[in-house]
Write a structure and sequence with these properties.
620 residues; propionate-CoA ligase activity; AMP-bd_C_sf; Propionyl-CoA synthetase; AMP-dep_synth/lig_dom; single chain; GMP Synthetase, Chain A, domain 3; binds coenzyme A; binds adenosine monophosphate
Length: 620
């Protein structure tokens, strides 16, 4: 394997086949891949099992006593370590539980669960028997869960009686029951894990008790699957109200994650990696569950928040207590900590133990936050960029390849395997430093999505706007020094506390309110969450705001999309600024909401609306 970033990058571009076949040697294969890229995905024809690579092979190598998972749960006061041997047993039994209810290779299993070890066992158990998991983030409401159930058509739905969100206990079962009422698809069973905080009611015949099913399950072995067989479906926000089911194949995923753990994050087997995210997001899939375990590291499963569980020191105490070597979180988490502890008192009190680097992703790491974190932690703070579709970082500073070059505000350099270009609207390259559409040459490297579930057309569309390239939907520039700078989206997606949301989808929900004639939702800047959605609604003729309307709209969005939408601001206005052709000037509204002094645009049809919006924002 090449030693320096430049060598590795050059080889990945000049001979991707050799580069990735070499990287594939880091895994155990039942049948080694006959070739790298095939029209069907990476390594098709090769056979392996992802769970074997994440768990069993480490036990077989004599590392059964090494810690695989540290469950750190400040919200329940629990701390528990699971060795690789124990993990193997738990996963094999969980797989036995699924198999006993007829789950076999290719069947889908929806997992709607909190950050507890059983969630991780369930994901690995699916991988073990070749079933396809689809984890749904707990912050989504019943209708969103229902959409995912109808698209994935799972045999089983796995859930727990509750999640714990900071100080709040969130019962999951009523939500699951409601989602199953809404969904057209019937699952055969719901397997329910009763947590001590909430005893959820069971529906006779349909619901099964996790603990008793698990107790009677026999462990089952790993099955061999084709590298191109799907490992999971992960739904993410698209620009329409319909979520996109990103499909990840077994082989490319395992190879990419194994490679990234070593070469991007610089991790060695036995070291401790912590991604403070949620298993419901891609970061959780790749770097709480699969990446660290495939690499033979210890992973930290943290059930808590950066602040409030119980305070802004919880991250540093966890890092210190467990000897975390490399830490990964979203910039919003650092901003939340900084707000509570601007002087870094907790950091100095606890120290950071063995920590050698902090990686940030999920949204652009603003230079101010990067500088603060670097000053407080006295170590590299590395912004890196990727998306659910890609599955692993496409731009980063590859610490494991000895690269330390960083520039606050930039996400680093193209990761080996990814060839970037920045194009204008016509598909022509912009000059270095110029802003345009950030695209990546096709085919994408191993680990990136192979299709969208039930939506091959949607998948292909991402490769059609710019011939030969995958359209990321992000805008940015690459500077003279080669640093990639990702500045924002070219579509209606926004990033709220590192969570990806579609303003179009929120608008669709608000438009269903009987009093609303039309609306616009924009992402306004927020000091902690990066962005928050702000809604502007115009009432139907004859409808009045009785003072409750904003609250009703907020509740509606919460019930339809979920608390994760974090919609707190709704403004009822007489009219929205529009162009003469009737297009709502959302960019103008966004700038006004950000407190900018916006000149009246020449294309505007109704200039008086600018003043209307300004007055409303001032609360007049
Ligand atoms: N289950 C149920 N509800 C959830 C949930 C879950 N898994 N996750 C979030 N929610 C709820 C929250 O309780 C909150 O509800 P509320 O409106 O009743 O308070 C709402 O969804 C919004 O949550 P969030 O955006 O996370 O805001 P927060 O105020 O609870 O916390 C941060 C703010 C910055 C501390 C938090 O968002 C954070 O830690 N972000 C890190 C982001 C991250 O991990 N991103 C993944 C990519 S790396
Ligand atoms: P998700 O699919 O939820 O991971 O969201 C991916 C989107 O988040 C990207 O397309 C970007 O718009 C944004 N994003 C993630 N990480 C970064 C980053 N490091 N810098 C800038 N934007 C980011």
């Amino acid at each position: 394997m090449s030693r320096t970033y430049s060598d590795a990058y050059a080889q990945s571009v000049s001979d991707p086949e050799a580069f990735w076949l070499k990287a594939a040697e880091a895994l155990d294969w039942d049948t080694p891949p006959p070739q790298g890229w095939t029209g069907q995905g990476w390594f098709a024809g090769g056979r392996l099992n992802t769970c074997h690579n994440a768990v069993d092979r480490h036990v077989a190598a004599g590392r059964g006593d090494d810690v695989a998972v540290i469950y750190e749960s400040p919200v329940t006061g629990t701390r528990r370590s699971t060795s690789y041997a124990e993990l193997q047993d738990s996963v094999a039994r969980t797989a036995g539980m699924l198999a006993a209810h007829g789950v076999a290779k290719g069947d889908r299993v929806v997992i709607y669960m909190p950050m507890i070890p059983e969630t991780l066992f369930a994901m690995l158990a699916c991988a073990r028997i070749g079933a396809v998991h689809s984890v749904v983030f707990g912050g989504f409401a019943a209708p969103e869960l229902a959409k995912r159930i109808d698209d994935a058509k799972p045999k089983l739905l796995l859930t727990a009686s509750c999640g714990i969100e900071g100080q709040k206990v969130v019962p999951y079962k009523p939500l699951v029951d409601h989602a199953l009422e809404l969904a057209a698809h019937d699952v055969e069973h719901v397997v329910l894990l009763q947590r001590p905080q909430v005893e959820a009611p069971m529906q006779a015949g349909r619901d099964l008790d996790w603990s008793s099913e698990y107790a009677k399950a026999a462990p089952v072995a790993c099955v061999s699957v084709d590298a191109a067989d799907p490992l999971y479906i992960l739904y993410t926000s698209g620009t329409t109200g319909v979520p996109k089911g990103v499909v990840r194949q077994n082989g490319g995923h395992a190879v990419a994650l194994a490679w990234s753990m070593v070469n991007i994050y610089g991790m060695k087997p036995g070291e401790v990696f912590w991604a403070a995210s949620d298993v419901g997001w891609v970061v959780g899939h790749s770097y709480i569950v699969y990446g660290p375990l495939i690499a033979g590291c210890t992973t930290v499963l943290f059930e808590g928040k950066p602040v409030g569980t119980p305070d802004a020191g919880t991250f540093w105490r966890t890092i210190e207590a467990h000897g975390v070597d490399v830490f990964f979180t979203a910039p919003t988490a650092i901003r939340a900590i900084r707000k509570e502890d601007p002087e870094g008192r907790f950091i100095r009190e606890t120290g950071t133990g063995r920590l050698r680097a902090l990686f940030l992703a999920g949204e652009r790491a603003d230079p101010d936050t990067v500088h603060w974190a670097e000053t407080q932690l006295a170590m590299p703070v590395i912004d890196h960029w990727w998306q659910t579709e890609l599955g692993w970082p496409a731009a980063a500073t590859c610490l494991g390849l000895g690269d330390t070059r960083r520039q606050a505000g930039s996400a680093g350099f193209p990761v080996p395997g990814f060839t970037f270009a920045v194009l204008d609207d016509h598909g022509d390259p912009v000059a270095p430093g110029g802003t345009g559409h950030v695209v990546i040459a096709a085919p994408l490297p191993p680990g990136c999505y192979s299709t969208l579930w039930n939506n091959e057309t949607g998948f292909r569309r991402a490769f059609e706007t710019f011939a030969g390239y995958y359209e990321t939907g992000d805008a940015g520039h690459i500077d003279e020094g080669g640093f990639v700078n990702i500045m924002g989206r070219t579509d209606d997606l926004i990033n709220v506390a590192g969570h990806r949301l579609s303003t179009g989808q929120i608008e669709q929900i608000i438009a269903t309110h009987p009093a609303v004639a039309e609306c616009a939702v924009i992402g306004a800047d927020d000091a902690v969450k990066g962005m928050v959605p702000v809604a502007f609604a115009v009432l139907k003729a004859g409808r009045q705001d009785d003072g409750n309307l904003a609250h009703e709209i907020i509740t509606l969005v919460r019930e339809e999309l979920g608390p994760v939408a974090a919609l707190k601001n709704v403004h009822i206005v007489a009219a929205l600024p529009k162009t003469r052709s009737g297009k709502i000037l959302r960019a103008v509204i966004r700038r006004l909401a950000n407190g900018e002094d916006v000149p009246v645009p020449p294309t505007i049809e109704n200039p008086d609306t600018i003043e209307i919006i300004k007055r409303e924002l001032r609360g007049e």
